[in-house]
Amino acid sequence: MRRHIIAANWKMNKTLANVREFLIKFVKWKNNTEMQVDIIICPPSIYLMEASTLLYNTDVKLSAQNIYFENAGAFTGEISAPMLKSIGCYYSIIGHSERRAYFHETDADVNKKLKALLENGMNAILCLGETLHQRENGETKNVVQAQLSADLYGIESRFFDNIIIAYEPIWAIGTGKTATPEDAEDVQKFIRQWIANKYNQTVANNLRILYGGSINHNNIAELISQPDIDGGLIGGASLDKNSFIKIVEIANRIIGGK
Ligand code: PEP
Predict the structure, then answer these.
(1) Ligand 1 pocket by C-beta < 6 Å: which residues?
(2) Which domain holds residue 195?
């Protein structure tokens, strides 16, 4: 039985005061709620230390939005896996489409970042997905397959407890256009099958695959009701605490009732 995840990707948003206000209120709410899902919060790196303190002794997981693949050295401006671990942050998003598009990250970079996280005993939220052009040309599964193959190159099955995959069609991110639950399910089922073929059925059955792309409180229920959608990676709708709490409440209700 896979436990669902609701993850908040705040991207480059919020001030320190906003972060404090959100997390203090969220933790208070969460402590009075029976949680049926796992929560991961991904603040900008400058707030990770503060968030780590505020989330200390809670079961809310903290994640970076990116890492560099070397452990230490002359890489001005970068943050490494051991640094994150040292402040109690054991997760990082890697391969987000915004990093692939604006910072020219390649699948080879993503693969090195994944290895850096896993070798340091950390967890990855590996993002992948197709552009609108690729979808319209019927290339979605080929693109996803190529990303899986390159991003997971050299990764052994024993590491899969520490990997979460987030299928995020690029045309659905921050656009208000969500993939239909059936379209998202179709690709996510394909991803699970690909993992089963490449590794084995147990690895595939245990792998949590999230959907991301304009999730909000109106569409979360239908999306996570699909058999291969094990939660959501949420950008815009995770910024406001009330909106995020509403999404978690709905997820709790749906998953709790399953
Ligand atoms: C994301 O940042 O991963 C994302 C899915 O953003 P949004 O929910 O705003 O589309």
Answers:
(1) 9, 11, 168, 173-174, 212-215, 233-237
(2) 5-256
